[in-house]
Design goal:
The structure holds 2 protein chains of 2 kinds. By secondary structure, chain A is α+β, with helices and mostly antiparallel strands. Chain A is built from 4 helices and 3 strands. A 3-stranded antiparallel β-sheet of chain A has the order 1-3-2. In chain B, the strands form 3 sheets. Chain B has an 8-stranded mixed β-sheet with strand order 3-4-2-1-5-6-7-8, with helices on both faces. An 8-stranded mixed β-sheet of chain B has the order 11-12-10-9-13-14-15-16, sandwiched between helices. In chain B, helix 1 links the parallel strand 1 and strand 2. Classes of the chains: A alpha+beta, B alpha/beta. Chains A and B meet through helix 1 and helix 4 of A and helix 4 and helix 6 of B.
């Protein structure tokens, strides 16, 4: 089971914050050592909450997703 | 003329022995002085002078990237006292870890930056976030270098950039804050925004911050200058190395602009590495506001590498600061306990509110219908959805109150790591229809929503100040708040609201109900709150006092005899 919050943190670390810097899902799956099916499921729930955007085979954090990660810090 | 080398290692018997041997060979060939990261002392090696860059603090790090940044910031603060820059005509960084420091020192000294590469992240066969991050740092440094030397291939590439005209910005106050609109996360960003805007009416004021994607643009508005770096320029390994990376870019930004501030005002640990480095590199007095501490958030349980690094930088910031500002007497005690700080170094400077701005946002007709039915009372909360804010206690209090009366709607604004759990909690209590999670609201939406509410609740477990309490009082609404931290100072119990013990849902429900049952008393409390804000919490008063303290510090600074070896390299260059 992929922890959605860990997924957000990984995208943040990879600077996947806009379409130009989006990360391929295969690469993310390998970096997170997560099966593709579980990854897709976690991404779907994050996309529903508008924290990430999935375009074709790539994903990036939305501004809302960035602010969610930032909220850890203060 | 001399080369100043910056090396991560020179001892072949250490962990990266082969790299150390290569660097030693390169340095022997070039000559010059070596600044050795992570070491103390000085001496000669193979006929070359070696100066230790300073021992790193004994805090654990999670990976090589965090470690390298931590050592880099320690060295940047130490270098002005250890390295004589006279005669240095190039700064050469060996491997990416040495090059990070060399790049900044070259900017400070106004000389070319040479980057010596031995191996690359890709070539080392690494995988994972560390490898991704190192590769991105290497690419960045390679692009920025005036000369790149591939030591093992014997290749050398010089870039003819032409002599860039030295920049020079008018001196002024420099705030360093990771939060500034549109990147506003909590109270820190609101405080910095208000302080900077008022200060700019009196003096040249800079805010150094980060930009959100697509909006990394500097802004000038009269004497207020907002400088931004792209916090996603480099890939990192996690939240701490992300903070280090954008702090490094902040230092470079100030040096590249030729900005020598009159005073640096840092806000929380997230700007501490840059603030401390700039203090020493430019010999400028530093003050700090501690808005919250990891010690307080974790109730003194500093355990993980991340927490230990945050605690280290909070301590370091208060140690380095000429004066430390906190927002409440409660925070004063917390900072003294957490960092062994003497009381006479700390000034309590409360947060304020810009009433003209606040009053400008009035709800539109029918806007209340977005939140509740006409017969429902609105109990409002706004804040980050984290444990410290006690929203779970509020949901529990909602369950208790709704079991007694059904005419109440709980509106919970904000976002954060606990949001999914809180939504689930409300559903599992069977009160999902009566608890509305709005998500993040804009400032205007937030201020308007407060004015539509009947009671505003702040159920925090930890709260250094609680700007939301001021906003509630400015809205002339009664407040029900936990008796913790700054809230117990801002909210006058029985006069502007009611204080209840933290973590006590029954008491919270009881206090909310008492105010809903007695609208006359609630109105009176709201009016008292408004008067209290008008009298005690105005940013113009706060800033006037702050400017007086700056002035005293600048007078002390002008007579204190602080000197560094970098005094022989004036900044900005003529």
């Amino acid at each position: 089971m992929v922890d959605p919050f860990e997924l957000l943190k990984a995208l943040h670390a990879l600077s996947a914050v806009d379409a130009d810097r989006a990360v391929r899902l295969d690469k993310l799956s390998s970096l997170m050592q997560a099966p593709r099916g579980e990854l897709d499921e976690a991404l779907r729930s994050l996309a529903d909450m508008k924290y990430v955007e999935v375009v074709d085979d790539k994903v990036f954090l939305t501004e809302l997703g960035i602010l969610k990660i930032s909220s850890l810090f203060c | 003329m001399t080369t100043l080398h910056v090396a991560p290692e020179l001892d072949p018997l250490k962990r990266r022995g082969l790299l150390a041997s290569w660097i030693r060979e390169a340095v022997r060939g070039e000559g010059g002085v070596v600044l050795l990261l992570g070491h103390e002392g000085r001496g000669r090696l193979d006929g070359v002078e070696v100066v230790g860059g300073g021992a790193p603090p004994s805090v654990p790090t999670s990976d090589a990237v965090e470690r390298a940044f931590l050592e880099a910031f320690v060295t940047l603060a130490e270098a002005p006292y250890r390295v004589d820059p006279r005669g240095v005509d190039v700064v050469e960084g060996h491997e990416w870890a040495g090059a990070l420091v060399a790049y900044v020192l070259a900017k400070r000294l106004g000389v070319p930056f040479r980057y010596s590469i031995y191996t690359r992240a890709g070539g080392r066969g690494g995988r994972g976030l560390v490898s991704e991050s190192v590769a991105s740092i290497e690419s960045f440094l390679e692009a920025e270098a005036d000369e790149v030397v591939e030591r093992l291939r014997g290749a050398r590439v010089r870039r003819e950039r032409g002599a860039a005209a030295p920049q020079r910005r008018a001196p002024g106050i420099l705030h360093i804050s990771w939060e500034y609109p549109p990147h506003i996360v909590g109270g820190l960003g609101r405080a910095v925004t208000s302080i900077a805007r008022v200060q700019a009416e009196h003096a040249e004021t800079y805010v150094l911050s980060i930009g959100l994607p697509g909006r990394v643009v500097d802004e000038d508005e009269g004497r207020l200058h907002v400088l931004r770096v792209d916090p996603f320029l480099l890939r990192t390994t996690g939240l701490v190395s992300w903070v280090y990376a954008f702090n490094m870019l902040m230092v470079v930004k100030v040096l590249s602009l030729g900005l020598k501030p009159t005073i640096i005002h840092a806000h929380d640990w997230l700007s501490a590495p840059a603030a401390v480095a700039l203090k020493h590199l430019l010999k400028v007095p530093l003050v700090a506001t501690v808005h919250a501490t990891e010690y307080g958030r974790s109730r003194g349980n500093i355990a993980t590498p991340m927490q230990q690094q945050i605690h280290y930088w909070e301590w370091r910031l208060t140690y380095e600061a000429w004066r430390v500002f906190v927002c409440s007497h409660s925070m004063r005690g917390e900072v003294m306990a957490a960092f062994s700080l003497p009381a006479d170094k700390i000034t309590v400077l409360p947060n304020g509110i810009d009433l003209a701005e606040f009053d400008a946002h009035q709800p539109a007709p029918g806007e209340r219908d977005k939140y509740a039915l006409p017969w429902e009372k609105v109990v409002f909360f706004a804040g980050r959805h984290v444990y410290d804010k006690g929203i779970d206690v509020l949901v529990e209090a909602a369950r208790i109150l709704l079991s007694r009366r059904g005419d109440v709607k709980f509106v919970i604004a904000g976002d954060g790591p606990m949001r999914m759990h809180l939504e689930w909690l409300a559903r599992s209590y069977g009160i999902g229809q009566k608890v509305l999670f709005t998500g993040r609201l804009s400032d205007s939406e937030l201020f308007r929503a407060m004015k539509l509410s009947d009671v505003i609740v702040i159920p925090s477990r930890y709260e250094p100040f609680g700007i939301v309490a001021l906003e509630a009082m400015a809205s002339a609404k009664p407040v029900v708040a936990s008796r913790v931290g700054g809230l117990a100072e801002v909210v006058e119990d029985g006069v502007t609201g009611l204080l209840v013990p933290p973590d006590d849902p029954a008491a919270l429900a009881g206090a909310i109900e008492a105010l809903l049952r007695d609208p006359g008393r609630a109105r009176e409390m709201g009016a008292s709150g408004r008067r209290r804000v008008e009298l005690l919490y105005r940013w113009d008063q706060v800033v006037r006092y702050l400017l007086q303290i700056y002035q005293r510090i600048l007078e002390e600074h002008s007579t204190c005899g602080w000197s560094t070896l970098f005094d022989s390299a004036p900044f900005p260059r003529a």
